[in-house]
Write a structure and sequence with these properties.
This protein is of the alpha/beta class. The protein has 3 domains: about 180 residues, Alpha-D-Glucose-1,6-Bisphosphate, Chain A, domain 3, CATH 3.40.120.10; about 220 residues, Alpha-D-Glucose-1,6-Bisphosphate, Chain A, domain 3 (3-Layer(aba) Sandwich), CATH 3.40.120.10; about 130 residues, TATA-Binding Protein. It has 18 helices and 27 strands. The strands form 6 sheets. Strands 2-6-5-3-4-9-8 form a 7-stranded mixed sheet, sandwiched between helices. Strands 20-21-24-25-26-19-27 form a 7-stranded antiparallel sheet. A hairpin with a 6-residue loop joins strand 22 and strand 23. Helix 10 packs parallel to helix 11. The longest helix is centred in the C-terminal third of the chain and has 16 residues. The protein is globular and about 70 Å long. The structure holds alpha-D-glucose-1-phosphate-6-vanadate and cobalt (II) ion. Alpha-D-glucose-1-phosphate-6-vanadate binds next to loops.
Length: about 550
């Protein structure tokens, strides 16, 4: 029944920061998704008879590619596929299912925070048996394979009914359609004190969660409204739509403007949050206060012992390099190691597996722990709620207390989206070329103390990742980082990360924009942003 179909390679199937992401139209080319999935299977070893997990964020093309992947998994010899009903599994839920059922790995269909729909983006990511994104040695092998692939394997069977829970056979392989929420919700109940959060909410604490018409809707309805007793209407935009209602499912001030307006408006709730397309990001907003993801990581690390799942404390904290140093100060106070990794969750997997880190985070609204091997949006929301339920203080009070104790890392990321790729490459290569001569130069009142192009050696397996972002470190402790995005699908996105530290005795209530003004000017002077991109302003500031 297995058929081998001849195919010709595509030359652009290089996975980026988080899987292969392309326009839907690119994925719709005959053989495009099949070639990539077969390239993944071709570089893996030992999965005969094993379990593969399948799910996605519900975006346009999700169901079709799920059916394709089921046929190909059967043809390639997997013994069982676990698929979320409706083809749905959030990224952290998929990670949990892989771990819980001892799967060999999983395919997650998502382009995460990128928009969806026929003219927008689609993506495929492979996760390994620890539940985490495949490391670079696997993604490099997949790319190499995709350049020479000449056939893919499939079986001729009708579509599986993804909307009915239960088991069916496809050839020798079993398909189990599972509830996408149940296992995940059960894990959250193990980690957090649902009773304490329930009584916080019952006492009149009000929250608002924006699921952005993306995958977290069903999870948030079940956990926040049904299990924790928040009133109906707490979750807004809670029905996943193939085009996310035409919006970017990216939780930030620009794309979650509705939530910001609510949290900064009259009669604002006590706590607001949002997640992204595939449910792995979190945005935290208190009444009249936005918590930067870097600060959120630091506050969660400092307080996570208040949640039952982490009562034993932390072994270490890990953050991506562009993430602010706020968490470093917490690590120092707790006397645990701090790991600084390149951008992307795949670099945290080894640290978590080795028990070196308990909590990890990125400035891009991603936080997670050793409970799975992905960042986890609702997990971060629940940890915040657990902390609030114990401390019984406002988000603003918790932040003020944190800054008074550790100091404040003023922080912003400026994104220049849709820049012409050649111009972006020129900017980066000129910047890299001039790095040495910058040391000692002054920009405004700041003198450059050191520069480098970030390089990471994995402490567990010794693998080295180079050219992960240019760092300009000032004598004042301020920092500017430049790198190009690895998740975009058209042109290039330049990311400029700006950070300035004020110690506990410094000014802790500057407006962020004002605090970073000098650094913004320095960034342009150093990298020629206006000159190369032709842009006067960033597209998005987060
Ligand atoms: C971005 C973020 C990075 C994150 C990645 C995937 O990558 O900066 O921190 O891990 O997206 O997140 P880049 O290469 O565009 O900067 V998700 O939620 O889109 O899977
Ligand atoms: Co995501």
């Amino acid at each position: 029944m297995t058929r081998s179909i001849a195919t010709t390679p595509f030359d652009d199937q290089k996975p980026g920061t988080s899987g292969l992401r392309k326009k839907v139209r690119v994925f719709q080319q005959p053989g495009y998704a099949k070639n990539f999935i077969q390239s993944v299977f071709d570089v893996l070893d030992g999965f005969a008879g094993q379990t593969l997990v399948l799910g996605g964020d519900g975006r346009f093309l999700n169901r079709e590619v799920i059916q394709t992947a089921i046929r190909m998994a059967a043809a390639n010899g997997f013994g069982r596929v676990l698929v979320g009903s409706g083809g749905i599994l959030s990224t952290p839920a998929a990670s949990n299912v892989i771990r819980k059922y001892g799967a060999f790995g999983g395919l997650i269909l998502s382009a995460s925070h990128n928009p969806g729909g026929p003219d927008e983006d689609f993506g495929i990511k492979y996760n390994i048996s620890n539940g985490g994104p495949a490391p670079e040695k696997v993604t490099d092998a997949v790319y190499a394979r995709s350049k020479v692939i000449d056939r893919y394997l499939t079986v001729d069977v009708p579509d599986v009914d993804l909307d009915r829970l239960g088991s069916t056979q496809v050839g020798d392989m079993t398909i189990e359609v599972i509830d996408p929420v149940e296992d995940y919700a059960a894990l959250m109940e193990e980690l957090f004190d649902f009773g304490a959060i329930r009584s916080l909410i019952a006492g009149g604490f009000r929250l608002s969660f924006d699921a952005m018409h993306a995958v977290t809707g069903p999870y948030a309805h079940e956990i926040l409204e049904r299990r924790l007793g928040a009133p109906e209407g707490t979750v807004v935009n809670g029905t996943p739509l193939p085009d996310f209602g035409g919006h970017h499912p990216d939780p930030n001030a620009v794309h979650a403007a509705e939530l910001f307006a609510r949290m900064f408006g009259a009669d604002a709730p006590d706590f607001g949050a949002a997640s992204d397309g595939d449910g792995d990001r979190n945005l935290i907003v208190g009444r009249n206060i936005f918590v930067t993801p870097s600060d959120s990581l630091a506050v969660l690390a400092a307080n996570m012992g208040l949640a039952p799942g982490y009562a034993g404390g932390l072994t270490g904290i890990a953050r991506s390099m562009p993430t602010s140093g706020a968490a470093d100060r917490v690590a120092r106070a707790l006397n645990v190691p701090l790991f600084e990794t390149p951008t992307g969750w795949k670099f945290f997997g080894n640290l978590l597996d080795a028990g070196l880190a308990t909590i990890c985070g990125e400035e891009s609204a991603g936080t997670g722990s050793n409970h799975v091997r992905e960042k986890d949006g609702l997990w971060a929301v629940l940890l915040w709620l657990n902390i609030l339920a114990v401390r019984r203080e406002s988000v603003a009070a918790i932040m003020a207390d944190h800054w008074a104790r550790y100091g404040r890392n003023y922080y912003a990321r400026h994104d220049y989206e849709g820049v012409e790729s050649d111009a972006a490459d020129r900017l980066m290569s000129e910047l890299r070329g001039g790095l040495d001569s910058l040391v000692g130069q002054s920009f405004g009142s700041s003198i450059v103390a050191a520069t480098d192009d970030f390089e990471y050696t994995d402490p567990v397996d010794g693998s080295v990742s180079r050219a992960q972002g240019v760092r300009i470190l000032f004598e004042t402790g301020s920092r500017i980082v430049f790198r190009l995005s690895g998740t975009g699908t058209s042109g290039a996105t330049l990311r400029v990360y700006l950070e300035r530290f004020e110690g506990p005795q410094g000014v802790l209530d500057y407006d962020v924009g004002t605090a970073l003004e000098d650094l913004v000017e320095a960034a342009d002077a150093i990298a020629g942003i206006r000159h190369h991109t032709g842009r006067e302003q960033p597209t998005v500031i987060t």
